[in-house]
Amino acid sequence: MLRIKGSVVNSMSGLALKLLGEGDFAGWLEALEADSKALMREGVYATDWYSVHDGLLHPAEVLAEVSGKTNEEIGRELGEFAAKKAMTGIYKAFVDFRSAEGLLRETARIIAAYYDGVEAEVIWNGKRDVSIIIGGMAGAHEILQHRMIAWASVALENTGASNVRGELEATKGQDLTLRFRWS
Length: 183
Fold this sequence. Notes:
With 183 residues, the protein is α+β, with helices and mostly antiparallel strands. The protein has 2 domains: 3-74, no CATH class; 88-181, Alpha-Beta Plaits (2-Layer Sandwich), CATH 3.30.70. The chain is 55% helix and 20% strand. The chain is built from 7 helices and 6 strands. The strands form 2 sheets. The chain has a 4-stranded antiparallel sheet with strand order 3-4-6-5, with helices on one face. It has a two-stranded antiparallel ribbon with strand order 1-2. A hairpin with a 2-residue loop joins strand 5 (165-172) and strand 6 (175-181).
């Protein structure tokens, strides 16, 4: 079972509060399954590991439902929200933000910081064109796929890359492949 870092769980509740406001946030909490509700209500430690279902996927599906958005839209908004928070938070120390190349050199370490038991490899397809192969994530839920695409896109834009296009390239065996191109 895939586990996620508490900082991912915290971004889930943070986005829900931002999108829904305090009144509708309470209704969203009530609609959650017991384990998800407990995580969102009681809070989590940013450095501990939690179930991806309880801490991200189920709450995001309910958020999509109550906000009238698709799972893909919620996944992207989660990635953007989390990336913007990370660019100014604790994980900024992990990354050389001066260049896309510096960011991509640290990709495996960044992914391992958020997802337990997952390995990543960056393949350069050409200048400003990379594939990130993430082992152990084949069949990952679309919310998770789009969260990762949006997170990496915002991170690349933060290095000065422009016109970033991120997409799901393939799932093969146990691997998930994301591709990014920019100018």
